[in-house]
């Protein structure tokens, strides 16, 4: 009997399951990981790399599918032309780094990195014949899931949101893409608990990052970045952390590239959280002794306002493998750096600026060395968080505030306000 190309495997006890089983955890209670026999899908690393350059017209998921999720039938793939997001080189503005680049995942169809995972997750649900898909969300996950589910005939997306704790733009996305949208008077962790209870009782496919299939799609972020860099591996990847699925995906994809011989070294990873929602950071400072769930405090980086990250154990494994570290930044730091990057013409979300602020903090502490090359993953577009930007710039006490001036309709007043 031919061995399957992909399987589920428990990250704790190593028990294996059929890839077509609809399950998110092992019988022992721990998360699963998708394991592929990549030596079958990519028998020769050199040939695979060479083939990619002739496929740049393809959508990213199709281009990298041999390493992302080779078991997914191509006819089941639901794509909205995600990927091929820009890699901004801002090294000239930051000479204290060897190089500093920003991978802007906010340039995806629903304006966040979540589209990468939903290609895999919704497409797999489509192949399995699922009619209902669901997620808990702080905004970006719901937008992506709703959009991709909406592209599948006879598939209904269901979204649970913490009422009043996501931006109006993100709420509008879930609604306009046609998802059944339910506001819950709780936080993200409370919504996540309800999603798990509902999917245990009903035939509804769960698409949060505890679904290891979705993680496979998100591997494309790191893989595409390295392709754009002609496979030259930076010294660091820095990424914001909330539920910890993205840092888990980033690490898994980089490991697989290295094991296949596609890249010749591993970078270090840095995950950055806000100080008010920093369970992974506090665990890191304690030698990963244990995760102590916390009640996440309100933050402008609302997408990572999570106190009990589902993918904690996976993230710890990747951080340890990559000699990684975890940092935390304040609300002032994250909003000041949002303003500074926005001013470069690169509109970023507060969650992305958490990673930028953390990068600067690590460089100031000389953990990132002066000659090292760094790639920061930007997770969503600033246009999803207009209220946060307007509030920051209206407050003259903020260091980089750019206040709007109101004047009477006269040339003299206009000249005065423009210092002419």
Concise synopsis of the structure shown:
The chain has 17 helices and 13 strands. With 420 residues, it is of the alpha/beta class.
Please give the order of strands in the largest beta sheet. Answer: 4-5-13-10-11-12
Radius of gyration: 21 Å
The CATH class designation of the domain at 87-111 and 214-394 is Alpha Beta
**Could you spell the SSE succession in H and E letters?**
EEEHHHHEEHEHEHEHEHHEHEHHEHHEHH
Helix count, DSSP H or I runs of 4 or more residues: 17
Helix content estimate: 25-40%
Derived from helix and strand composition plus strand pairing, the structural class reads: alpha/beta
Architecture of the domain at 87-111 and 214-394 in CATH?
3-Layer(aba) Sandwich
Mean pLDDT across all amino acids: 96
Distance between the termini: 81 Å
* Number of DSSP E strands: 13
- Unreliable spans are none
Shape: globular
The portion of residues forming beta strands comes to 15-25%
Protein topology:
Layout: E1 6-10, E2 16-18, E3 32-36, H1 38-41, H2 45-52, H3 60-63, H4 65-68, E4 87-89, E5 99-104, H5 114-128, E6 132-136, H6 140-150, E7 156-162, H7 168-176, E8 180-184, H8 188-201, E9 205-206, H9 212-218, H10 220-228, E10 236-240, H11 245-260, E11 268-274, H12 279-285, H13 312-321, E12 325-329, H14 331-342, H15 350-364, E13 373-378, H16 386-394, H17 411-417
Parallel strand pairs: 5-13, 6-7, 6-9, 7-8, 10-11, 10-13, 11-12
Antiparallel strand pairs: 1-2, 1-3, 4-5
């Amino acid at each position: 009997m031919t061995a399957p190309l992909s399987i589920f495997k428990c990250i704790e006890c190593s028990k294996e399951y059929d890839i077509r089983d609809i399950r998110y955890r092992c019988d022992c209670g721990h998360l699963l990981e998708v394991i592929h026999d990549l030596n079958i899908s990519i028998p020769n690393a050199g040939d695979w790399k060479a083939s990619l350059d002739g496929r740049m017209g393809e959508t990213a998921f199709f281009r990298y599918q041999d390493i992302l999720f080779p078991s997914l039938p191509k006819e089941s793939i639901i794509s909205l032309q995600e990927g091929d997001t820009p890699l901004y080189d801002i090294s000239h503005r930051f000479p204290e780094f060897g190089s500093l680049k920003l991978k802007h995942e906010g340039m995806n169809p629903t304006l966040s990195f979540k589209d990468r995972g939903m290609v895999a997750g919704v497409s797999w649900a489509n192949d399995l014949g699922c009619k209902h898909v669901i997620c808990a969300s702080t905004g970006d996950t719901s937008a992506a899931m709703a959009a991709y589910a909406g592209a599948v005939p006879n598939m209904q997306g269901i979204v649970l949101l913490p009422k009043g704790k996501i931006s109006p733009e993100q709420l509008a996305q879930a609604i306009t893409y046609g998802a059944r949208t339910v506001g819950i008077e709780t936080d993200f962790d409370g919504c996540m608990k309800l999603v798990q209870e509902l999917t245990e009782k009903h035939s509804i496919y769960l698409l949060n990052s505890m679904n290891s299939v979705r993680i496979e799609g998100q591997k494309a972020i790191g893989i595409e970045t390295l392709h754009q860099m002609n496979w030259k591996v930076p010294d660091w990847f820095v990424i914001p952390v909330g539920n910890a699925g993205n840092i888990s995906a980033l690490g898994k994809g980089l490991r697989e590239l290295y094991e296949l011989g596609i890249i010749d070294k591993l970078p270090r990873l840095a995950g950055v959280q806000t100080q008010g929602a920093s369970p992974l950071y506090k665990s890191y400072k304690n030698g990963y002794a244990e995760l102590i769930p916390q009640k996440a405090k309100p933050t402008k980086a609302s997408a990572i306002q999570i106190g009990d990250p589902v993918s904690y154990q996976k993230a710890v494994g990747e951080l340890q493998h990559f000699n990684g570290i975890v940092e935390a930044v304040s609300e002032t730091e994250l909003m000041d750096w949002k303003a500074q990057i926005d001013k470069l013409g690169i509109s970023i979300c507060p969650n992305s600026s958490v990673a930028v602020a953390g990068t600067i903090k690590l460089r100031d502490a000389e953990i990132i060395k002066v000659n090292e090359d760094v790639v920061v993953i930007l997770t969503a577009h600033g246009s999803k968080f207009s209220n946060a930007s307007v509030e920051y710039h209206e407050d003259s006490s903020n260091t980089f505030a750019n206040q709007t001036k109101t004047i009477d309709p006269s040339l003299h007043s206009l000249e005065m306000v423009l210092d002419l």
